[in-house]
Batch of 3 targets.
Target 1
Amino acid sequence: MKKLSLLVLLFGLALPVPQTAAQTYPTMPVRLIIPYPPGGPMDDVGRVVGQRLSEMWGQPVVVDNRSGADGSIGTEFVIQARPDGYTLLLGNSGPISINPNLHKGSKHNPLKDLEPITMLITMPQVLLVNPNLPVHSIKELVEFAGSRPPGTLNYASSGVGNIQHLAMEELQAVAGIRMNHIPYRGTAPAYIDLLAGRVELMFGNTVGSLNFITAGSVRPIAISSMRRLPLLPNVPTIAESYPGFEVTSWVGLFAPKDVPQPIIHKIQTDAAKVMAMPDVQARFAAQGAEVVASTPEQLRDFTLKEEAIYARIIQSTGLAPK
């Protein structure tokens, strides 16, 4: 009899979450936390997607910029939010895959304490050089850097431990060169010094760099993704010189852990519909982004693999906390 009761209990626990909540969701405004300041690429993605979801749902999607600590403040806010689907996070590599390796003392781990919903877009990094630097390819850069004392060339990033910094560290490792890292407080001042020639090169995302490339203020010499970028078809990938090299920016939706799966599924399904809209696809394509609209499982697998890659890079550069 006890065995039968246990089976009944286990069967009851395994029953799916009732669909009613998902069918009526949302019945009130949804808050979309963007862990970065207004005006940047993440903010643009959040406002486009948020507006279209709002139109689809008949409920406001309120964008809430909670910046600070490289995206960790806004991410922590969502982790601690009520798991009802009414507080969502627009996340990327920084707070999801990189910061857990830089801040081991944190109470929460986004990889464990958030529910992945969908990756929305990916965006490669472009390796940019000041036009006065006499290199036009990865091969020429490696030869130029190798012919000078280590640390002669200066590269910029928007801060220690961010994707621009770690991408350049990985490139130096595979190419066997050594350059000097100049971290800035944000991408804008890094671009200013690159254009002025105070630093020779940097990685930048396509949104921030396309105008500079078009104007001839910087020279693109390589793309960090596995495939060439349609907007810059003549710029080769780094992987063409160093097979397997890939460092890609991305933007995805997350929810607090334990949000019912039917709600997660509804948000993912509706977000995929938004990303399939021709004008939305055209908008992101014009910025050099590729629409993905992944499943929650695909996003989870991707972030776990990416976290392991960044853990290795951070460990090899000595950035790992002692």
Target 2
Amino acid sequence: MSIIIKKPWGQEEILETNDYYTVKRLTMMDGHQCSKQYHNEKKETIYVIYGTLTVYFDDSVILLDPGNFWTIEPKKVHRMSAKNGITIYLECSTSQLHDVVRLEDDYERDKK
């Protein structure tokens, strides 16, 4: 059974979590974005299922369409956005679920 976590930008659905990895299905609503953040230990790979995901990192921007993926190493500052409609993507990561250091957030959530 999956666990759905509502977010101000959409939702996360945890499909599997164990000591080794976590798999989530994320739905980001049109015009929304997650916080600008990094992880101290967590490593994640995102894989787009539907829509176009805009990924910001360093001074770069990449667009990921369905079938595209990107791996984010620990300490890498990043932010994802759905600028052209609802976007659905998978995230497979190491299982440090609370390892999030927010630098900026559109929804006024806690930042470091």
Target 3
Amino acid sequence: MVDIRTSFMGLSLKNPIIVGSSGLTNSVDKIVELEKSGAGAVVLKSLFEEQLLHEFNHIMKQDELTNQYPEALDYISNYSRENNLAKYLDLISQSKKNVNIPVIASINCFTASEWISYASRMEKAGADAIELNVFILPSDPVRSSDKNERIYFSILDSVLKQVKIPVALKISYYFSALAETASKLEWAGAKGLVLFNRFYSPDIDIDEMKVIPSHVFSAPEEIALPLRWIALLSGNLKCDLVGTTGIHEGKDLVKMLLAGANAVEIVSTIYKNGNARIGEMLHYLEQWMVKNHYASIKEFKGKLSYRKSENPAAYERVQFMKHFAGIE
């Protein structure tokens, strides 16, 4: 019998499959079913800073009283935020009462505003850890990369001052020096890094002449980018790494572990194939381990990372000509 247990930020996981933040994890009933299907942990659907601001602004536009009584502004703002937070805290506490796997709270944010203090209340509600999904698209031509990156550290620092439970950052690849930034985030206190979050992808409907969403779910080929960076960073960082995006089958799970990931987060493949996909991926992992004579994940985790690979240059090759034409 092989041992597929792993750990992430000090949390013990019965296996390396974490169901990522999504509509799959927005209710206690769904989370219970995910545990029954074999999930090793869940990341709750995010509490969105953007959503809180949107709801507040929507109320402001609809409520004529705010024009007559400006003092109502603070009341409405606080009520809107507290109402959303209360629902989220209840999801955390009820989930913890009904499942035995780690429950990770998620904050989706782009500023280090005062509402970051909600993190401490998530901890009190029973969250085992917090995942900060920070999304900053470097689209402002007058804002430097340094200013963009400072926001990540400001948010992380604000949350770490509020909680004692481990904090992970789910980040994108939009950094001028990704490896250096990852190291600095670790030094700043991040216990884990999740690579990578997926931004909303716009498309254009040429008949309706409007911008529409595209590629809601990840595609299997998208594994290439997080796989490369997991392999490059593994062994060079002390914090734990989780791979996400493009992980659809059991072989993808094995690849991420070989690259050096502690675990993976999956969402799209469950939407496409149902909860049963979790068990299928775990079965593949177990059969692969038996076939290759591994008794535990520890025996092969990171075996093909940049530092341990017999051909580390493969992870740094960036030009197609060198690969296909054999040009050195």
